[in-house]
Amino acid sequence: MTSHQHDPALSPASPRHVAVVGAGMVGLSTAWFLQEAGVQVTVYERDHVAAGASWGNAGWLTPDLTAPLPEPAVLRYGVRAVLSPRSPVYVPLRADRDLLRFLAGFVAASTPRRWRRGMAAYVPLNQRALEAFDVLAAGGVSARTQPARPFLACFRREKEAQALLTELAAIRDAGQDPTFFPVTGWQARATEPALTDSVGAAVEIHGQRYLNPPEFLRSLAMAVGARGGEILEGREVSDLQHRSGGVTVVCATGEERRHDAVVLAGGAELGDLAGRFGVRQPVQAGRGYSFSVPVEQPPRGPLYFPKQRVACTPLDGRLRVAGMMEFRRHGSPLDQRRITAIVDAVRPFLSGVDLDDRQDEWVGSRPCTADGLPLIGATASARVFVAGGHGMWGIALGPITGQLLAQTVLKGEAAPELAPFDPLR
Ligand SMILES: Cc1cc2nc3c(=O)[nH]c(=O)nc-3n(C[C@H](O)[C@H](O)[C@H](O)COP(=O)(O)OP(=O)(O)OC[C@H]3O[C@@H](n4cnc5c(N)ncnc54)[C@H](O)[C@@H]3O)c2cc1C
Q1: Residue 350 DSSP class
Q2: What confidence tens digit (pLDDT) does each residue in 37-66 have?
Q3: Which pLDDT does position 244 carry in this prediction?
Q4: How far apart are the C-alpha atoms of 279 and 2, rounded to whole Å?
Q5: CB distance 51 to ligand 1 below 6 Å
Q6: Where does the pLDDT of residue 243 fall: very low under 50, low under 70, confident under 90, or very high at 90 and above?
Q7: Does ligand 1 come within 6 angstroms of the Cβ of 266?
Q8: What is the pTM of this model?
Q9: Is the sign of the CA dihedral 216, 218, 224, 227 positive or negative?
Q10: Could you give the domains of the chain?
Q11: How far is CA 6 from CA 12, 162, 380, 382, 422, in A?
């Protein structure tokens, strides 16, 4: 199908059996909310549950920081900085055509006006993001989200905090209501003994939460299974074909099954299948790294080092440390230099943490769109939907995405708050 218009002839009456491609946070949340409405779901996953970005991320549920990734500071960051493998944002010297196209769109979107427009689109989702987790909890997803008491962004000097304070003020201007206070380094260390006296200033953000990603994803998958959903692991979907009142999902194994509708939630690889249904927005892997280390006294909430772009989260009695934004091909091997760069960046700020005793070194791909907005809604086929491209925020926004997309699949029309995220934009 080449047209960007939805084909009404293909509109399913009321889908009873829906396939979801991808068992990450977004796919599983969508499956769960479809089940809420009595739909039978089958989740196809190439590898296993949480095989993608949904495993090794920082697990922050921080709607007060959830904003479009392209922003004016990116333009000031400069070309030289992004070409260094030690830089927190890295672009390889030899970018391919797809990457160049993505970067051109990304730079074009990094203006104050585009950022404000994108932020306004995020607000209605951010305002309901945590509520959607409560719906999952009330409906039987047993893994819990934790309140961050508080969420702490740490800086070497007071003036470094200004950029974050300005961003939080801009998020407030867009219509959200973040509660935040600048504090001294001394106050931050009194709250969090894991911080050294290199932390000279901090910003407390209240009302945020976090979760343990592997545990949460396991629990969400179990809940989908317990309600009668099928999760087929080891099934790569290689093709989708329209056939007499349905869509046939074709797996690389040769297996074929017909469904009333399909939701594509394949993370950074979303574009492979979605491109066949009129979705032209490139989805680029923004690769991030993480590992976990022992900590004498786990912090009471996440610690954020914005200048170094490093995120720390207490997890299973250890500290998960995450960072880097590497615009490289999904599936490229883990580059040990990035792990070293994260360790070096954060070492001066942490005490009682053994950064050399690392476990679970991991690289995963954030699904990034050039305009920084996710893709949520119908494609050129009214039977094929897309949910993904959340970049840095697919954990926080996975459940609300699933909730709104499930309504779209069932009603055949998108909720007004999804208009800016139209996959055919
Ligand atoms: C270092 C790091 C830290 C992060 N921290 C946070 C954070 O604190 N908070 C936050 O909200 N977000 C965070 N993120 C972003 C978040 O992890 C992602 O946005 C989110 O996990 C994306 O979820 P997803 O379900 O769209 O994709 P994924 O989790 O990548 O899932 C996609 C799944 O689809 C499968 N798949 C792909 N193609 C096919 C196919 N053809 N057939 C079958 N299966 C297929 C893949 O195997 C994969 O399992 C972070 C990311 C990174 C890398």
Answers
A1: B
A2: 999 999 999 999 999 999 999 999 999 999
A3: 74
A4: 10
A5: yes
A6: confident
A7: yes
A8: 0.95
A9: negative
A10: 12-421 (3.50.50.60)
A11: 12, 46, 5, 6, 12
